[in-house]
Amino acid sequence: MRTSSTIRTRGTVKRTTRAAAALAAGALALSLTACGGDEDNGGGDGGDEGGGAKQPASSVTLPKLDGESLEVAAVWTGTEQENFKKVLAEFEKRTGAKVTFVPAQDPIINFLGSKIAGGAPPDVAMLPQPGAIKQAVDKGWAKPLGAEATKELGENYSQGWQDIGKVGGKQYGVYYKAANKSLIWYNAQVFENAGAAEPKTWDELLNAAQMVYDSGVTPFSVGGADGWTLTDWFENVYLSQAGPEKYDQLAKHEIKWTDPSVKDALTTLAEIWGKKDFVAGGASGALQTEFPASVTQTFTGGDQPKAGMVYEGDFVQVNIGETKAKVGTDAKVFPFPAVGDTAPVVSGGDAAVVFKDSKAAQALATWLASPDAAGIQAKLGGFLSPNKSIDSSVYPNEVQKKIAEALVAAGDDFRFDMSDQAPQAFGGTPGKGEWKTLQDFLKNPKDVAGAQAKLEADAAAAYGG
Fold first, then answer.
1. Rounded mean pLDDT of 67-92?
2. Which residues are the signal sequence here (predicted)?
3. Model pTM greater than 0.85?
């Protein structure tokens, strides 16, 4: 799973008050706390078992497309790709079209540029950032959604999720897939052995980590080889500590990365990243650990794994599914704890964008905006949709169901991933910008001022001053 960032954006997610953010975070906390029991893992095979429910009869109207061929590009791999192909297969069945999945490289906007330069753009691409949508529009690559797709989107999505797919007031993106990126997953047996409870505040998280450490298990697994995991850590701390207004300002580079609020967030992060033996393998080990391994090593080895907790979004369930651990029993989850007044609610997502303005491409966008399409992948696990018309009972376990319900209930009360709103050179390129500076900071968390200076220099260059 990757939700990297690209070009500059001005995503129009609705600004929320602290009270609204607190309500959304509270709903999530209540939902997750209520989960338990022996649940299926998130990597189900898509049978009717997961949740036992089927989607209602189709409500989306699609044209007949016999003989038409389409290409869909996305950076998805492994289980995520295979599950999405099942959604495309149903589209083929309903329309008669033939759809080919084209594996893309990250950052996808560069991949698309090479395809377009070669005269072979895909019909539709799944873009993991609002910034990528804007760049595609600015370059004249993306095509506005047609009437049917826009209608389907309006019926099934909150205004906030519609708005982040807009550029210049026109609808370009269908946020088919979402991510709740304010979750910490933990090995239930490790917590039980340590006598640790699910924390609600940052101080309680540090106390739980100390208890896990004292029990003989390293507290945290960090996938530092993938710089985007580190930006997600920062964003949750920053949103909770600095508040949504500052978050929006920093996301647009209206305040500098040398601002005291950034210093506070980095100093807070250092309380974990800089604590000796709190990160599996230390900084050097974390920087060699890719995201999937950061998950599997938390839930492999019974009650003596390499780490007791791993931070990342709901999509962690796909990787948990590669182990013997079961979500809801062996692998449990709590909302990212409040660092400031309220707990953070950070979201990401992948939007379907049309690159060939054909009847078939527009039909596929309409399909992906429907509850029928999202319901297929929701049943398969490791997937979250902002589509409010989905029957939540299709999700394969109670944990995923409650996360999905909380996301829909939050409406527009969330913040989109900050690095996904940044120019690609700053927020979404391996070995550069924010990814690289936070990797360096993980290695040397005492150098807060140095990290701030480097972040600001790179941001200023990427944003154009």
1. 95
2. 1-36
3. no
